[in-house]
Amino acid sequence: MTAARCITVHIAADGMAAWVDVLAGPPADAEQLADAVRRAGVTHGVEAAVCAGLAEALVDEQLVVRELGIAVGQPARPGSDGYFSPAFEPGIRAGRIDGDGSMDFRDRGLLKPVRPGDRLGHLYPAIEGRAGKRVDGGDLAVLPVRQASLTLGSGVSQRADGEVVADAAGVILYVPQKSLAVVQQHSHRGDVDLKSGHLDMAGSLTISGDVLRLFCAAATGDVDIGGMVAGGSVHAGGSIHVRGAVQGGEQGSLYAGGDVAVKTADRAQIVCHGLLTLESAVNCLLEAEVIQVGIVRGGEARAERFVTVMEAGAASGTETLIAVAVPLEPVRDEVREAVASAKQQRTAQRARGGGGGLERARGGKMGRALAGLQRDELTRAVLVRTRQAELLETAHVVVQGVAHPGLTVRVGTAQLSLQGLLAPTRFSFDAQTRSIRCERYVQ
Question: What are the residue boundaries of the structural domains of the chain, listed by start?
């Protein structure tokens, strides 16, 4: 009986490949090769063309083959979990780099204000994996994938293409891999300081601590401060409530489109277009529609309609001004910005060697901006006079307690400076004499 040709098939340890060794010997055929493959347990990924070529060559008794690959497995293709890629910088940054390359450590971006339609990021769906197969027919499993676990809350929506956008103005409330929302109410625990940086948002802002020197808290809605304003600034489109004191110094100021209520103020600037109430103000600049203050010493208090004060001035004769019938008219900042922009352009032209002088400025962007500013100021002056005439009919100052020497009361353009103590008095405008009328005030 003739001995059979030695054909040996091997499978790699990982099961992902098979190869054949052939020794010299009697001629063999495709059936013998296929039998060797079956005996080795190779059932998947067999290279038919390679096996066919080898079968034809097996008629050569001198043929020797070493590690000829005849089968390749199919590797598994892992899937990927769904995830959210934010278009904003999560968390808080070290600061903001200014145009000159310096770092402003006060602008840390803790609050991230957005407007309707702003892009917040992209939600990518999970991609399923594909199982693999070894050459012996065994399966190579892949792990299941998970969809993004991010929950979209109020003020946020997802488009068909996966883009996530803001539906409302506010600030981003983001918990990584958990939730995303745009809120119009934010509560900040702690102070507004170097740790938090400036706070700026569309909506209402509540601060449990203080607003410290050189830092700003701003909101389009109301701002409520549980502590004090110690040299910082607060801006609100709505009202401001400061439960502690406002210490101005060089930078401290409040601006509100609505009412302002503070405990005490010292060397601060406070402007509001509603009712301003406080217990005492020392060397402050106060501007409001109506002012109600317990004690005002030094500085100026200006109101559109009326001022009510318990004690005005000081025994030492500190100069104090209380004025009413003072229209609160906003300055058109866009015109001033146009002038500033034009000046910057002219400065840049001169730096490049360009001439022009005043005549060219008059005919260029700066000239047009200056002309616009002049027209705007003239219109504003007319409106102020008209408004002041209306206010004079009812504007008044009431000192419910004592008015000290050094107090100046101004109603419109009429002015009265006190030389001695006055008992409770009501000051108003006498249209006939164009002077200030003083009447004893009786509660």
Answer: 7-72, 83-132+141-183, 205-330+392-440, 333-351+364-391
